[in-house]
Amino acid sequence: MKQNLRRAVNITALVLAAGLLIGLLTGCSQSQIGNSKPQPGNSEPQTVTITVKGDQNVIVNEPKTIEVAKGTKWSEVKLKVNVSYKDGYKAKGWKFDDESGSDLYDALSFNNNATVFAISKKIPQPNDPDLFKTDGNGTITGYTCDKEDLPKALVIPGKIGDEVITEIGERAFYDCKGLTSLDLSGCTSLTTIGNLAFFGCMGLTEVKLPANLTTIGESAFYGCTIETLYIGCNITDSIISNLTREDSVKQHLKNLKLGEGVSTIGDRAFYGCMGLTEVKLSANLTTIGESAFYDCPIETLYIGCDITYSIISCLTQEDSVKQHLKNLKLREGVSTIGESAFQDCTGLTNLDLSIYTNLTEIGEKAFSGCKGLNEVKLPANLTTIGLSAFRGCKGLTSLDLSGCTSLTTIGQEAFFSCTGLTEIKLPATLTTIGNHAFYECKGLTSLDLSGCTSLTTIGDGSFSGCKGLNEVKLPANLTEIGKYTFKDCTGLNEVKLPANLTEIGGSAFKYCTGLTEIKLPANLIQIGGYAFSDCTGLTSAVFEDTNGWAVYSNESYSGTSTPISSSNLVNEQTAAWYLCQRYDSKYWKKD
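That's the Leucine-rich repeat domain-containing protein sequence above. Prediction below.
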């Protein structure tokens, strides 16, 4: 029994010793074991304090310390941080403690108090030479900053240190999607843009090319959505084929401006650029190649060069340009608009040339067939409106040339078949109205030429077919009315012939069925055949001088003549019968 008692005491001692050892190992007293409740004053903190600092270019705003729950991740902490940067600097990253600390990352948890340190970096400037890498021989090979820090508006200098830039190397700016504009115009020695140089720069919308560029490599601008393009060099196939023939450029190009030194645009240069709506041509341009602007719906055209058919026709005679051209701007010193320059440009609605004070001549067919044209303003110094210059401009409703105080000549068929024209005003300086100048202007209702004090002759058929014309006032110094001048003016019911008139051409008033009376002045010596033929309403013809009249069978007034007795012309009804019926086909002449 004593032996069993000794064994029980030993077991109890072992248990107590084991408990004491466990307590020592766990840091707990014998009283904490089995008691899970923490003792007052010994609980661990549940928050941590984050102190915010930064380098010399960082401005730490309040709060400069942030208290967050223990275990909060950096992705949440940084949302509470308020820092800004000095001008010319931006965020580069965050580190623990200071610049030499380890990097912070979003998944990092804060379980203890800590210091976070903001690191800044300089914002690259668009024209900073230090931004670019070169090969030491004039070729730009890339950039020194991170791709995302590359300026959106990139200006490449012509010289970096002592190194003259002659080439943009292959893949130099490959896939720089953040680029929005590129200015190479200052690179006066740049001749080559290498293969893939700006490949994939999908944000690039504006490009300026320099004067001496000769080569653009394959896919140099692939994927670039260029909208505005300035070209300072002659546009040859080696330059343009790898630019405007990229589908992305064809689809997006809207504005084109040529530098002053550009003299040539090659064949098919902008072929199929179906978004191109605005073009500015240079002062020294002499050649536009075939189909250079095929399918380009140009709406606004600025022309800095001479406007001659040989230069301009390959642009304005494209169907897409004819249909869409609405706004026309010329260089300040332009003196002539050449032959057929804007013929059949049906999209033109308003033409204001009044500001071009050096413009003196509008050439043959210059605006012929511009059916949409409803308003024309011409400059004071204009002297000549050429043959068929505005022929078929059916949208014109009024024409005020009274301010063209140097205008002397309106050419043949100049306003032929401008059927919408209801009113015209002509200047005192006018000396010539060409044949058929206003032929079939059916909308005209009245014609006042009385102020045209220098006008002595009205050309053949000038107002023929103006069926709406009911009143005509002729100038005092007029001496000749040409053949067919008022033929088919069926509405004409009143015309006063001036005292100085000496000749009325053949068929001049033929078919003027509304005319009821006519007074023929004493100075009149010649009336052409059919001059008053078929004037069925004419019942009164007053000859102020009835003596010496005879009629001939031919226009040359040769051969046998038939005298007309003065007594047959004294009576106005009889005179009208002789004039309109008996001798209507004859050629009248007074000796």
